[in-house]
DNA sequence: CTGAAAGCGCTTACAG
DNA sequence: CTGAAAGCGCTTACAG
């Protein structure tokens, strides 16, 4: 079953393929007669132009690639949504790839997307610059979002990781906490590294306990958050405050607290990085380090569009905001250290 | 900056484009010499074949389309992940589209995906058969997943909606509940309709209260779950048990309970449709109607692959499983009607 | 305003 | 085993 081509349309309309093409792409001057004939013919035949053929001739495909580490992470799902909606406004279709927090899958998606000749690529990358040589050689306009890669000359849209973590630690310290357990992200990611560094600096700044055991290394997925909570709560001198470096690890960690009948807010202070809708499930509500994910997605697209247009857009860093809720009451309200 | 083509590679390797093509696609007989020369040339030039040109010649693009209603719904995020991983195993890239629970965006994605000449399409559709004429005319192999469209001759992978809801209502009735509030999904979706129908049947079967006010119509998104919970809890005679037809509405509804200091499990029984990771945030844990999303995604891909191969695969219905947890204790345990 | 022709980058019978 | 040639479906200078 060969699908109908522009030739079929042209034949039926009694014009040449060239004229049919002009009419269908709303191009230049075409006669009233031609327009009518071609449009009805296309309609009747159910003509659907072959995007492959079109983009072989033109140099653009009107698609952008979006490469994310984990679509099951609500933060990235929100980001994907924001990017896709914004891209639509510019007439771009978003091809989405899920690297599954795996270097290998990331590489293979970069490959495939470049083969598909996407007009641009938005990625939350992992690994190092040399792993992304294809992108960084300037083969295609690229924007990094949320995460970055050292030494890459690519515009980025990131959040103020350091500021958010510092605010959270200061907040806990002000509440009287001196032992703060930290569930860190993977150090292969820029966000994992920056947040940990900021945590360590803030611990020093506030005079909190620098015990190395207070840092557990997770992988941004929920099981590692659970493992981290278990590890920290089982320490000889367990921390009375926990800070987790992303939303999925927070979910895992809170789950462990629930299992153990530890009451968040009274038995344990808790701060989560990222503010996701599902956090309203927690009672009392979680104190979080929040970002404007929607703005992050929009801006990433805007920078990419500018790049595609040949401009050299400036990177932007979005502010973090500490939202204090019931999970971090002052110690006098009943938190036994 | 023209990207390197197979001609460039051929020239550098001192062979014809035809030979270069054969080597690069691991085709038929090629000489040892040719293979070596072409491979090194391709390597040196960083040659990346143009997928557009290739799929214009061949008839397949090695891509499938995945059209989902809402990527921010964890159920669909999990499904997307499962589909994508399975498709990868067969060498297919997944082009992902987010219809945003909008008919219009769904239509435009169907259009774009057909234009991109995806080899097959997996969709959780909404609306009616006539809205999807392109798909249903057999233009491209299609599988519906989770949701279906009446009168469409398309293989489907669905969950046993009716069985799950019936089990939940019976469970609540056995606990002594006679007034059960139901937050329904949109009636433009097959899942919304089937679940509501099953709810009504089970209410009759168990002799529960058939008051029409006990059904609130939501839209599968969290804000409507919150609105539904407020509506139901504000009734003159509010239900002491709530059942929500998906995970996002459950999140909204539980959030309202938290706001109102209603203790789930003691003040109110709660059952959620779908079991998502974030539900571990709730304490006590939620009773849920669970499915094997992973199997659903895998099967959808398997059916599609079969269809692409020219077979006529059978639709499959996956079982629902009621998982009873702390949010639905027996009334004697303290639920005041 | 319109058509004939060339060409985008690849693949594949067809000869040899 | 290999090359010349045709063709996938479109678009776009080039003439007219």
Features:
homodimer, 337 residues, alpha/beta, 434 Repressor (Amino-terminal Domain), Rossmann fold, 3 domains, 6-stranded parallel beta sheet, 6-stranded mixed beta sheet, 12 helices, elongated, DNA-binding, DNA-binding (chains A, B)
Topology:
2 copies of one chain form a homodimer.
Chain A: H1 6-13, H2 17-24, H3 32-45, H4 51-57, E1 63-68, H5 74-89, E2 93-98, H6 103-115, E3 120-123, H7 133-139, E4 142-145, E5 156-159, H8 161-174, E6 180-184, H9 190-205, E7 215-217, H10 222-233, E8 241-244, H11 247-259, E9 269-273, E10 287-290, H12 293-308, E11 316-318, E12 321-323
Parallel strand pairs in A: 1-2, 1-3, 3-4, 4-5, 5-11, 6-7, 6-8, 8-9, 9-10
Antiparallel strand pairs in A: 10-12
The first copy, chain A, binds a DNA duplex (16 and 16 nucleotides) through residues 5-7, 15-19, 21-22, 25, 27-31, 34, 49-50, 52-59.
């Amino acid at each position: 079953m060969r699908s109908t081509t522009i030739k079929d349309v042209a034949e039926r309309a009694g014009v040449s393929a060239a004229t049919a093409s002009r009419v269908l792409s709303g191009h230049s001057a075409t006669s009233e007669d031609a327009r009518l004939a071609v449009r009805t013919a296309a309609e009747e035949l159910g003509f659907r132009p072959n995007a492959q053929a079109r983009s072989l001739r033109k140099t653009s495909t009107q698609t952008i690639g979006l490469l994310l580490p984990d679509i099951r992470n609500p933060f990235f799902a929100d980001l994907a949504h924001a990017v896709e909606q914004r891209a639509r406004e510019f007439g771009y279709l978003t091809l989405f790839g899920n690297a599954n927090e795996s270097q290998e899958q990331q590489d293979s998606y970069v490959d495939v997307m470049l083969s598909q000749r996407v007009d641009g690529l938005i990625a939350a990358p992992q690994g190092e610059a040399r792993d992304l040589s294809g992108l960084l050689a300037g083969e295609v306009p690229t924007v990094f979002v949320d995460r970055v890669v050292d030494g890459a000359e690519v515009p980025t849209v990131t959040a103020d990781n350091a500021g958010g973590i510092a605010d959270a630690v200061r907040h806990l310290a002000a509440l009287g906490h001196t032992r703060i357990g930290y569930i860190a992200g993977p150090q292969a990611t820029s966000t994992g590294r920056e947040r940990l560094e900021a945590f360590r600096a803030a611990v020093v700044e506030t005079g909190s306990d620098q015990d190395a055991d207070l840092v557990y290394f997770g992988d941004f997925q929920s099981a590692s958050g659970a493992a981290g909570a278990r590890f920290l709560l089982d320490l000889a001198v367990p921390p009375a405050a926990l800070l987790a470096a992303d939303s999925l690890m927070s979910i895992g960690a809170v789950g462990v607290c629930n299992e153990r009948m530890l009451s968040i807010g009274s038995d344990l202070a808790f701060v989560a990085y990222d503010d996701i809708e599902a956090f309203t499930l927690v009672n009392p509500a979680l104190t979080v380090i929040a970002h404007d994910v929607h703005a992050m997605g929009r801006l990433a697209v805007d920078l990419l569009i500018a790049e595609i247009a040949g401009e050299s857009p400036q990177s932007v860093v979005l502010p973090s905001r500490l939202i204090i809720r019931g999970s971090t009451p002052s110690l006098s309200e009943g938190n036994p250290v």
